[in-house]
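Batch queue: ligand-bound targets. Current item pairs a single chain with zinc ion. No template structures supplied; prediction is de novo from sequence plus SMILES. Inputs echoed for audit trail.
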Amino acid sequence: MRELVVLGTASQAPTRYRNHNGYLLRWDDEGILFDPGEGTQRQLLLAGVSPWSFGRICITHLHGDHCLGLPGVVQRLSLDRVTHPVEVLYPSSGQVYIDRLLHAAVFDEHVDVRQRPVAGSGIVDPGPPFALVAKRLDHVPDTLGWRLEEPGGRTMMHDRLEAAGIVGPAVGELQRAGIVDVGGRRVRVEEMSVERPGQVVAFIMDTRLCDAAFELAERADLVVCEATFASAEADLARQYHHLTAAQAGRIAAEAGARRLVISHFSQRYPDETILLDEARSEFDDVIAAHDLLHVPVPSRLGPDLEPGRVS
Ligand SMILES: [Zn+2]
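Prediction returned. Tokens below.
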């Protein structure tokens, strides 16, 4: 299962209907919690997300709406005696705030939290199952956007395997070795499979329009992007180093992305319809996030594949 679980959608100030930021990406057996704003612990509960389901917490920057939920989340993990280590990744210049957030109140520390300060743009973890890439965005303070890149692979075509008489353990051997001998004939994996592009998810907030935002979103299956303001407030967006919804749409369109989720809305828009409309003026597949929304990563597409075909 690969999906985004939206935990909160408010920027600086929460509203009656929007919790502060918070996003969980489910990626098969892995989970990444992005930007746990205030109240994330309870939002996880309401979304039905177990504290056991994520091993990484990625923080874009140390403004409160992106990190004030960290103490509650970490203390909850400790309370639940989560046994796996949890990495916390963040811009290294925010170290003093991370130190405080991780020790904001008295608690019995039973969770193995591993701090991963990130100094700037680059590959933070080569994987598998995916590479985790950080890129410096244009915000104040230091802010990192995140990108998950799954390496490409091959999808075995069952009809071709059957026709060639390759069954049982021979299939695994073909996948491992790239060749297999069947019935006196040597078969190469390329004959029995098609290329399978890896999936990509990008997480972009907070920032002005900048090259890094386009690079993060490049051909991504799913882009989660801030859209704090409408175009009428473009000057404010620029002044406070934020994006308009139309700019978020432009990033997705020019980067060749497949699906865009906009979020991080200013409290001045109780109804996000105007933001959705403005983003849709630039890009077709846009979803305006609301709290507790689940958004699937679009089905994988390949050159000869229909969505959902065997893999
Ligand atoms: Zn923010």
